[in-house]
Amino acid sequence: MCAISETHVTETTSPKSPTISISDEMRKSYLDYAMSVIVSRALPDVRDGLKPVHRRILYAMMEGNYDWTKPPRKSARIVGDVMGNYHPHGDSSIYEAMVRMAQDFSMRLPLVDGQGNFGSVDGDPAAAMRYTESRLARAAESLLRDIDKNTVEFAQNYDETQLEPTVLPAEYPNLLVNGANGIAVGMATNIPPHNPGEVIAACEAYVNNPEITTEELTEIVPGPDFPTGALIMGRHGIREAYRTGRGSIIMRARAEVQTNAKDRESIIVHEIPYQVNKAQLLERIGEMVRDKVLEGISDIRDESDRTGMRIVIEVKRDAAGDVVLNKLYRHTRLQTSFPVNMLAMNAGRPIQMGLKDVIEAFCEFRKDVVIKRTTFLLNKSRDRAHILAGLMVALASIDEIIELIKKAPDTETARNELCATAWPAHEVGAFIALIDDPGHAVVDDHYTLSEVQARAILELRLQRLTGMERDKLAAETQELADKIADYLDILGSDTRVSQVILDELAATRERLSDDRRTEITDQLADQDDEDLIQQEDMVVTVSHRGYIKRVPLSIYRAQRRGGKGRAGMKTRDEDFVTRLFVTNTHTPILFFTSKGMVYQLKCYKLPESAPQSLGKAMVNLLPIEPEETINTVMPMPDDESSWGDLNVMFATASGNVRRNNLSDFTNIKRNGKIAMKMQDGDELVGVIPCNDDDDVLMATRNGKAIRFAANAVRVFRGRDSTGVRGIKLLGKDRVVSMSIIADPENEYILSVTENGYGKRTPIKDYRQSGRGGQGVANIEISPRNGQVMASFTVVEEDQLMLVTNQGQIIRIRVHGGEGDSIRIASRKTLGVRLFDVADDNDEKVVSAGLIHESDDDDDDHDVVADGEGRDDALTSPNSETQTETEAVKPDNSDAPDEEA
């Protein structure tokens, strides 16, 4: 509270007026206002779970006989009764409170049965109260039952003309069943609704064992049960809320991904979190799709009707439904939290309460209600029994009493004489003793009537003198005697009180319980997209103009060498495929740019497309500058445990190399980081993981290659250097590829030329030298072969994929059956034909990739890709082309090594 100067105001109307401190007066007035809001408006009572306005509405409806068994009445009439008798506030606040009690999507057990428009989960307001009708719901009967039996205290209403209850004698803990929310002064409450059957069962468990722990109660009440259903993610927030009264519960919509007949995925939402406005939710999703915050969504429809909720979110063909749904959970209110703050009024004070505290307070209240009700019924039975005792005495001496009445001059005299006479009670003494009438016992076989009994005798009708009526009086006396004995036994035994509470709780549970609507799952709420993606090998294709896509490896089938291949990627004019590799959907992929920056994306975040599709521009996936291009795309090793022991070797087109720790590139944020400082006119040609025991092989466009130890290049600590020289280039020669030699005994150097020729050469043919030399001959450069396109290490189990600038792709085995292997030859040879490129349109091989796992399909015949027609059939080997290749250069040719 802000400081207020001690300013004093003196009344001038009278010299004796007191001096008032403004700060004291404001402090007192503010505290009075705050307590009024806390006690009388904002916080519910722990006993019946109601705020004053709700309690007054229910009591006024009971007084007006708007019972659930009667026809409903105009809501305006009910609001008028409440406002006129009990609640001195505006009619709109009363009606809004009554509307909420009638909404089945707001209350777990609606307390008002409304007819007409009472709002919707879309946030539509209720119709005006002159158009709707209401009555008490059946669940409200259990809150009001026995209110006329002196079970609760009453207080004066606002104008002191009537009495109103300070609490309702609730038969179930409504605070937990329907929850509550409110904002007071300096405090607030937010209690979630629960399943009625579970909460009442927990109360029964507490009555049977008051020492029960919160953990044991949690086994009975596993968590909130929201009227809108949906899911609760995890149990930690629930345990904290039940233990301390505070916690955060993660709610998630119930949704599923369905695939239609056209293989298009749709997300179907059946239930949304509690208190989420459906219309605003859909509007927000639409805005985020329009702003490209959410991608992969093509259409949104609300197909909800009277049978239930149904929101349809259409997913684009190249998007994964599970991933889109996970993003919806992350960015929209399809997943939200419920901040639990279990603050309620207990004994006139606002108290933070846990689950056991609420149940304990309610059970103590029920005990008080049962005792007060039993005391009320005992007194009422005794009053009736007292009258019956007088009637029994009168019937035993009916002739004398009639004679006395006949002689009396008036009623008062007759009543006084009846009270003054001691009447014989030897015939009815047993009954009088049976009903235990204190203060009016039989003395010396005589009984003295009280004024009440005398008045009852004077009002006795003659028909009660018949034998049948006398038998009825005797039976009623016996029944009252049994009731009085039972009431006394209840009041004298805590065990009996507990048993009465248990019986009533069981009856209430049987009447109100229903199935749980909200499912509690142990699944983590912050599940990453990667957890939803199935691990699968993908062929990643990159085009010259910067388009990228991924295609499942299973789409392709192995062919023999020399085939025509199949369409691998649709390209635009002047575009062609430049990079291809096979990796897993969960593998991080590093993107190195022409300016030496590096970015990272998981493979599953790349657009999945058909083999003939164009893909998506990388500039739309990465935040690169307009003049920047992606020069190198490198998948990280599949084995994450090896990342800490590996280095990364960089090679540039100008022949420079640099070695860094792989850990320098494992934590790259969306805006990327500097990877290597580049000189003008230079660019990256390769970035490959390696270790100290590996060798590096660099191959040039003009058929040179150099092999040197990886540890000949020191590990650079920074990422902004240009590195050191790896190979000395002559003329306009450029480095085209870099490979790492890890297993010289089993690996070969596979070289591929741009005209589709290639060969394998044993590693031993490439002697190790120091870095910085000119290298040795790698493959013969001729008009037939063209320049070298790539050279890298392979093993016999590998498969090779080649792509041309016309978008054709082929997959062949490095070592296949007879006549189907890539020939092993010495370094300076022409090689054999691997890809039958077309000469008439200047087709060239522009990219090559390795598959490090053998294909399960070993069929040597033409194979049609899954779901494809014969136009995309993989062709059989061309024997004529193979013969021509062998005639140009025999397999055993042995040209001398040429060192520069």
TrEMBL record:
<dbReference type="Pfam" id="PF00521">
    <property type="entry name" value="DNA_topoisoIV"/>
</dbReference>
<feature type="active site" description="O-(5'-phospho-DNA)-tyrosine intermediate">
    <location>
        <position position="131"/>
    </location>
</feature>
<dbReference type="InterPro" id="IPR005743">
    <property type="entry name" value="GyrA"/>
</dbReference>
<feature type="compositionally biased region" description="Low complexity">
    <location>
        <begin position="10"/>
        <end position="21"/>
    </location>
</feature>
<keyword id="KW-0413">Isomerase</keyword>
<feature type="short sequence motif" description="GyrA-box">
    <location>
        <begin position="559"/>
        <end position="565"/>
    </location>
</feature>
<dbReference type="GO" id="GO:0005737">
    <property type="term" value="C:cytoplasm"/>
</dbReference>
<comment type="similarity">
    <text>Belongs to the type II topoisomerase GyrA/ParC subunit family.</text>
</comment>
<dbReference type="GO" id="GO:0009330">
    <property type="term" value="C:DNA topoisomerase type II (double strand cut, ATP-hydrolyzing) complex"/>
</dbReference>
<dbReference type="GO" id="GO:0006265">
    <property type="term" value="P:DNA topological change"/>
</dbReference>
<dbReference type="InterPro" id="IPR035516">
    <property type="entry name" value="Gyrase/topoIV_suA_C"/>
</dbReference>
<dbReference type="InterPro" id="IPR006691">
    <property type="entry name" value="GyrA/parC_rep"/>
</dbReference>
<dbReference type="GO" id="GO:0005524">
    <property type="term" value="F:ATP binding"/>
</dbReference>
<feature type="compositionally biased region" description="Basic and acidic residues">
    <location>
        <begin position="862"/>
        <end position="873"/>
    </location>
</feature>
<dbReference type="GO" id="GO:0005694">
    <property type="term" value="C:chromosome"/>
</dbReference>
<comment type="subunit">
    <text>Heterotetramer, composed of two GyrA and two GyrB chains. In the heterotetramer, GyrA contains the active site tyrosine that forms a transient covalent intermediate with DNA, while GyrB binds cofactors and catalyzes ATP hydrolysis.</text>
</comment>
<dbReference type="InterPro" id="IPR013758">
    <property type="entry name" value="Topo_IIA_A/C_ab"/>
</dbReference>
<dbReference type="GO" id="GO:0003677">
    <property type="term" value="F:DNA binding"/>
</dbReference>
<keyword id="KW-0547">Nucleotide-binding</keyword>
<dbReference type="InterPro" id="IPR013760">
    <property type="entry name" value="Topo_IIA-like_dom_sf"/>
</dbReference>
<protein>
    <recommendedName>
        <fullName>DNA gyrase subunit A</fullName>
        <ecNumber>5.6.2.2</ecNumber>
    </recommendedName>
</protein>
<feature type="domain" description="Topo IIA-type catalytic">
    <location>
        <begin position="43"/>
        <end position="532"/>
    </location>
</feature>
<dbReference type="GO" id="GO:0034335">
    <property type="term" value="F:DNA negative supercoiling activity"/>
</dbReference>
<keyword id="KW-0067">ATP-binding</keyword>
<dbReference type="InterPro" id="IPR013757">
    <property type="entry name" value="Topo_IIA_A_a_sf"/>
</dbReference>
<feature type="region of interest" description="Disordered">
    <location>
        <begin position="849"/>
        <end position="900"/>
    </location>
</feature>
<feature type="compositionally biased region" description="Polar residues">
    <location>
        <begin position="875"/>
        <end position="885"/>
    </location>
</feature>
<dbReference type="InterPro" id="IPR050220">
    <property type="entry name" value="Type_II_DNA_Topoisomerases"/>
</dbReference>
<dbReference type="GO" id="GO:0006261">
    <property type="term" value="P:DNA-templated DNA replication"/>
</dbReference>
<dbReference type="InterPro" id="IPR002205">
    <property type="entry name" value="Topo_IIA_dom_A"/>
</dbReference>
<comment type="function">
    <text>A type II topoisomerase that negatively supercoils closed circular double-stranded (ds) DNA in an ATP-dependent manner to modulate DNA topology and maintain chromosomes in an underwound state. Negative supercoiling favors strand separation, and DNA replication, transcription, recombination and repair, all of which involve strand separation. Also able to catalyze the interconversion of other topological isomers of dsDNA rings, including catenanes and knotted rings. Type II topoisomerases break and join 2 DNA strands simultaneously in an ATP-dependent manner.</text>
</comment>
<keyword id="KW-0799">Topoisomerase</keyword>
<keyword id="KW-0238">DNA-binding</keyword>
<feature type="region of interest" description="Disordered">
    <location>
        <begin position="1"/>
        <end position="21"/>
    </location>
</feature>
<keyword id="KW-0963">Cytoplasm</keyword>
<dbReference type="Pfam" id="PF03989">
    <property type="entry name" value="DNA_gyraseA_C"/>
</dbReference>
